[in-house]
Target: Putative transposase
Amino acid sequence: MDQLPTPHNNFFHFALSHLPSARSLIATQLDAEALKELKLETLKLETLKLETLKLETGSYVDSDLREKFSDLLFSVELAHPKNSESREANVYFLFEHKSQSDSTTVLQLLSYIIRIWEKRLRDGLGLCPIVPLVVYHGETGWTAARKLADLIDGPEALSAYQVNFEFPLLDLNRLSDQEIDGEPILRSSLRLLKYVAALNWFSICTTS
Model:
C-alpha cells in the first residue's frame, strides 16, 4: 500500500490498524443512531465473530482515489451465514476519515464498495455486506450530503429508479469527550482527532 498522503490519514490508519481498537469501533457503532437510520440495527454483534476481524491487505482504489481514502478495510466472519455452503461468509467494514465536509464522499464510498465487489466476483466469490463508516473531525459539524439521492438532480417521479445509498457518520465535533466511547486506545485516538483541527497539532509536530 502506498504511504498515506497526510498526517491525519497516517494517524487514523495507525490507530485503527490496532485490531482491538477496530473491534471496539465496530462494537460501539453497530447500535449507534447513524446505523439505525440506515436500518442496520438488525446486524447485531451476535451475528459476527469479532475475534476473526482482520485488516485486509492491498488497495481497491487507484492513485487518484487513494488521495481521498485512508483505505482501511476489515473483514469479519459471520457466525450464522445465510448460505452454510458459501466459500466465504464475511462482512466488510470500511473505515474512512474526513477532516472536511466533502459533498462527494457518498459517491467516493459507493465507488470503493463497487470495486470491492468487482474484485470478489473476479476471485470467484459472491457479493457480501459492506458497512461503511465515516469518522469526521472537522472544525464544524458535517453539512454535506450523506445520501446519494441528495446529489442527483431530477424529478421525484424518477427517485425510485435511482441507487439508494447512504453512509453512517461518526461526527466527533458533535460529541462530548464523555460520549466518545470504546477501548482506551480508540477512545484516546478519537479524542485527539477531535481536537487537532482547533489546535493545529499535526502542523506543529510536522514543522517543529
About this structure: The first strand starts at residue 48 and ends at 55. Residues 105-122 form the longest helix (18 residues). The helical segments are 7-16, 19-29, 33-37, 63-66, 105-122, 184-199, 201-207.
